[in-house]
Amino acid sequence: xxxxxxxxxxxxxxxxxxxxxxxxxxxxxxxxxxxxxxxxxxxxxxxxxxxxxxxxxxxxxxxxxxxxxxxxxxxxxxxxxxxxxxxxxxxxxxxxxxxxxxxxxxxxxxxxxxxxxxxxxxxxxxxxxxxxxxxxxxxxxxxxxxxxxxxxxxxxxxxxxxxxxxxxxxxxxxxxxxxxxxxxxxxxxxxxxxxxxxxxxxxxxxxxxxxxxxxxxxxxxxxxxxxxxxxxxxxxxxxxxxxxxxxxxxxxxxxxxxxxxxxxxxxxxxxxxxxxxxxxxxxxxxxxxxxxxxxxxxxxxxxxxxxxxxxxxxxxxxxxxxxxxxxxxxxxxxxxxxxxxxxxx
Length: 345
Hints:
Elements: H1 2-31, H2 37-55, H3 67-79, E1 91-102, E2 108-118, H4 120-130, E3 134-137, E4 141-144, E5 148-150, E6 153-155, E7 158-160, E8 163-165, E9 173-182, E10 187-193, H5 197-208, E11 220-223, E12 226-229, H6 237-255, H7 260-265, H8 275-279, H9 281-295, H10 303-312, H11 314-326, H12 332-344
Antiparallel strand pairs: 1-2, 3-9, 4-9, 5-8, 6-7, 9-10, 11-12
């Protein structure tokens, strides 16, 4: 009886795995990049993890997923060599119900989409696999409030190593340090402090505000024979300006915040902050600090990995939303710069 129950699951998983690994392999071939065994393993582990996620989610089947999105997710795991089965985990997946359009009868069309995120250990893996001249990435230091910490100092081309003494007075992480040994024997120290996370949180809130109309866009429009609510895409110029002004009020309130904690507590912004940030703030702050410490170190990405990393970057995603919304009215680089300056100015 048990064998009968398991067999369809295994067969179906095998079919999905074969389909998507073949699609990813074709993309690698087109780009002239080798689809090595570990990349293939990462692709298979991603499909398995997604398949199991769907199987444990009520009223969702693999066939319900947006196939183009699923293909890119698997490709990102393969190209960045992120293993969904590693422990501690290097990436994670979640499902989101997304409106993709309206049919001829005016009925909303929804699709389940897979969202992928890189966990802290995934960034470690990326640095190990793609970091320029990197030989070894040592375990990171999580410097907490109350600890004694002396940052690294530069004397000409020499670096004085940082010093850290744990005191155990708090669980609040204020800095992250990655000691990284290069192939020539040099050790460099990649650091990020808690304040750096303000930019990440700002980008998160900004992204969540993209479709918000604050009930400024009212009324309905006719599609086919049905009246449907108007969306931000139907906003008049006056309504667009009112929405923009409302968003700017929230951004201004965030700019006044001195700390990440102040931003989390900001009443104007709180409705647009996800539960992950609100309920597990310290875990999110640590994850972002680890990412910030590593992301600026030079990488030797191949074509596939470079594309995947750019597409997963929060600032890039926020900029893409702006580009789609403004339809060639603003320059891409201006959006990127504005995102960084929004918090630091």
